[in-house]
């Protein structure tokens, strides 16, 4: 795909800002769900972000891939952990997930590359 995932993910912030301004109660509710779901409990936050990345691939959501690839990197996920997670996404999502798994590892690699 060869997308600049850092730029792509940063550019999403403008649209989200519009949603927060136009639907503040809905976005507050969504934020509360996200915070509750990501709270470390039986699973740590890194594991939850890897799950979110796999779901992003299976759901074919490029925007989600960008956010969760960055979050997985920020939480200390290794490339090997991401690849194993993507293997599960491919298993559950079949052919289309193979293509989106390629997007996800490309995004993760770009967040890991400071250049």
The residue-averaged pLDDT reads 91
CATH topology: AhpD-like
Low-confidence regions: none
Q: Tell me the Rg in angstroms.
A: 14 Å
Quaternary assembly? single chain
Measured by DSSP, the beta-strand proportion falls in: under 5%
The biggest beta sheet, please?
none
Shape: globular
Within CATH, the superfamily carries the name: AhpD-like
Count of individual domains? 1
Looking at the overall shape, the CATH architecture is Up-down Bundle
Number-wise, the strands total: 0
In which range does the helix fraction lie?
over 70%
Order of secondary-structure elements:
HHHHH
Name the structural class. mainly alpha
Counting H and I runs of at least 4 residues, what is the number of helices? 5
Keywords: Oxidoreductase, Peroxidase
GO molecular function: peroxiredoxin activity
Organism: Mesorhizobium qingshengii
Protein name: Alkylhydroperoxidase AhpD family core domain-containing protein
Highlighted features:
single chain; mainly alpha; globular
Please tell me about this protein's structure:
Keywords: Oxidoreductase, Peroxidase. It holds the Pfam family CMD. It comes from Mesorhizobium qingshengii. There is one protein chain. This protein has 115 residues and is an all-alpha fold. It has one domain: AhpD-like (Up-down Bundle), CATH 1.20.1290.10. Helices cover 83% and strands 0% of the residues. The chain has helices at 5-22, 24-38, 45-59, 62-74, 79-112. The longest helix is centred in the last third of the chain and has 34 residues, at 79-112. The protein is globular, with a radius of gyration of 14 Å. The relative contact order is 0.16.
């Amino acid at each position: 795909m060869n997308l600049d995932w850092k730029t792509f993910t940063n550019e999403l912030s403008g649209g989200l800002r519009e949603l927060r301004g136009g639907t503040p109660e809905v976005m507050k509710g969504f934020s509360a769900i996200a915070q509750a779901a990501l709270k470390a409990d039986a699973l740590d936050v890194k594991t939850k972000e890897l799950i979110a990345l796999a779901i992003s691939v299976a759901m074919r959501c490029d925007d989600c891939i960008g956010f969760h690839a960055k979050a997985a990197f920020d939480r200390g996920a290794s490339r090997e952990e991401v690849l194993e997670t993507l293997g599960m996404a491919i298993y559950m999502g079949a052919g289309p997930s193979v293509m989106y798994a390629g997007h996800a590892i490309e995004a993760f690699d770009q967040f890991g590359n400071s250049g």
